[in-house]
């Protein structure tokens, strides 16, 4: 006789959904670790790939060498948009796992590439993977913490990601100097992809319910500024508000684009500039790591400061600090001055990066926030492509230093746009 209880074991009670960093600490810390692995996948290229372009594949034109950043930026920017939309439609976790699956072939392609076309293909996959994984970890952390400590949460997220970029750039520089440009540096990427996929598939939990909870309890701003941005917006309306119409969202989008424009320049041309000055691969690796290292560590503080001081002026000042750092890169001709400039560039980026994400989270309604984050990141990571193209064309025509001066001027102008057009988005500080 069949036991009626067989196969009908009661399901475990669902975990109660609550907002807050402390209440969701375990999952938050796990997502920080996953984002560090995402950053490591990017960091494996920072030191080695520009040298691979010139020394292994003999690409002499700067524009040709920068094609891998161009395709990476286009792929990542486009994928960011879909990551936000798909996260709302299918859930955050499936998008995260898909991003890691796409990352798995990247280091293998870099190791085995017989020609530059393979490097381009690897960077298309890397851009898609980064768009899915990094966007989703951002969205999931915003979901978990709620509105009170959003800046601090984004600071931790970006610190983990770019701290890992820096550590991996440094490690790959020394591995390349000791064992050659391939395969040793890219074996780190193999390990990162395997670990990231395993954690995301088996340990990370879905967070879309947290966004639904926040949407149900959403409180309008006291100044009525966002009353017209009700929760029922189409994808086209969210794109228009984030990109052009809403002053804070659109100011953040252009600042994000310019920020990554200068990061694309740093990624593609700084190692070439430093090598031309006679620096060793190891010292180039130190400089390539210093910029994201300062950027990563400082975000532990700047994200939290934006919760206390506000978003607007931290963003504007950060763009201006970056412009000063770029100017010093253009003026410098030795390791010491370039190290100071790289630290300034990292500090300015740290002031901007988590604060822009927090500002998007402040303004966008929880019901369409994931889509707004994806659109902001579309513009921001489109800066990689714009920066690679602009820097390559100017460097080919006028030299690397002229390209750096051009980007420094654009960065200063971006800070001015934020100062003039953006309002303070942190509700607790809006009346100050």
UniProtKB/TrEMBL annotation:
Task: Give the location in the cell.
Answer: Cell membrane
Where does the secretion signal sit in this chain?
Answer: none
User: Is Transport tagged as a keyword?
Assistant: yes
Per the record, the major location class is membrane
Q: Name one GO molecular function term.
A: transmembrane transporter activity
Which stretches are transmembrane?
25-42, 62-83, 95-112, 118-139, 159-180, 186-204, 264-282, 288-306, 313-331, 337-357, 378-398, 404-423
Record protein name field: Predicted arabinose efflux permease, MFS family
Specify the protein's topology with respect to the membrane: Multi-pass membrane protein
Query: What CDD domains does its record include?
Result: MFS_MdtG_SLC18_like
- GO cellular component term, pick one: plasma membrane
Recorded coiled-coil stretches: none
UniProt keyword terms in alphabetical order: Cell membrane, Membrane, Transmembrane, Transmembrane helix, Transport
Give all residue intervals belonging to the Major facilitator superfamily (MFS) profile domain: 28-426
């Amino acid at each position: 006789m069949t036991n009626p209880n067989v196969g009908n074991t009661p399901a475990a009670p669902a975990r109660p959904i609550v907002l807050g960093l402390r209440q969701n600490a375990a999952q938050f810390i796990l997502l920080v670790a996953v984002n560090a692995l995402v950053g490591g996948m990017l960091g494996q290229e920072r030191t080695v790939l520009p040298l691979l372009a010139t020394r292994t594949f003999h690409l002499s034109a700067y524009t040709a060498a920068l094609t891998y950043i161009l395709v990476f930026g286009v792929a990542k920017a486009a994928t960011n948009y879909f990551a936000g939309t798909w996260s709302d439609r299918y859930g955050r976790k499936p998008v995260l796992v898909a991003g890691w699956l796409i990352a798995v072939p990247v280091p293998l392609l870099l190791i085995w590439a017989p020609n530059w076309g393979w490097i381009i293909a690897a960077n298309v996959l890397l851009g898609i993977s980064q768009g899915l994984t990094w966007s989703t970890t951002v969205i999931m952390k915003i979901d978990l913490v709620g509105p009170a400590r959003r800046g601090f949460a984004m600071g931790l997220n970006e610190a983990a990601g770019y701290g890992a970029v820096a550590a991996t750039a440094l490690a790959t520089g020394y591995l390349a100097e000791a064992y050659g440009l391939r395969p040793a540096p890219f074996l780190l990427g193999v390990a990162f992809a395997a670990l990231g996929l395993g954690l995301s598939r088996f340990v990370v939990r879905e967070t879309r319910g947290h966004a639904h909870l926040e949407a149900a309890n959403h409180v309008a701003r006291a100044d009525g500024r966002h009353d017209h941005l009700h929760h029922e917006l189409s994808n086209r309306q969210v794109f228009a508000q984030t990109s052009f119409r809403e002053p804070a969202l659109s100011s953040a989008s252009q600042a994000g684009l310019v920020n990554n424009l200068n990061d694309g320049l740093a990624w593609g041309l700084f190692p070439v500039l430093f090598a031309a000055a006679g620096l060793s691969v190891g010292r180039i690796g130190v400089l390539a790591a210093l910029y994201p290292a300062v950027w990563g560590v400082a975000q532990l503080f700047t994200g939290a400061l934006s919760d206390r001081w506000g978003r607007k002026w931290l963003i504007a000042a950060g763009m201006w600090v970056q412009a000063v750092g770029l100017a010093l890169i253009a003026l410098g001709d030795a390791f010491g001055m370039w190290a100071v400039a790289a630290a300034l560039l990292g500090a300015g980026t740290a002031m901007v990066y988590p604060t822009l994400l927090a500002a998007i989270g402040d303004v966008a309604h929880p019901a369409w926030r994931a889509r707004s984050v994806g659109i902001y990141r579309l513009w921001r990571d489109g800066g990689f492509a714009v920066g690679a193209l602009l820097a390559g064309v100017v460097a080919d025509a006028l030299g690397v230093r002229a390209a750096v001066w051009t980007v420094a001027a654009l960065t200063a102008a971006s800070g001015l746009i934020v100062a003039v057009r953006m309002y303070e988005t942190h509700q607790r500080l809006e009346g100050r």
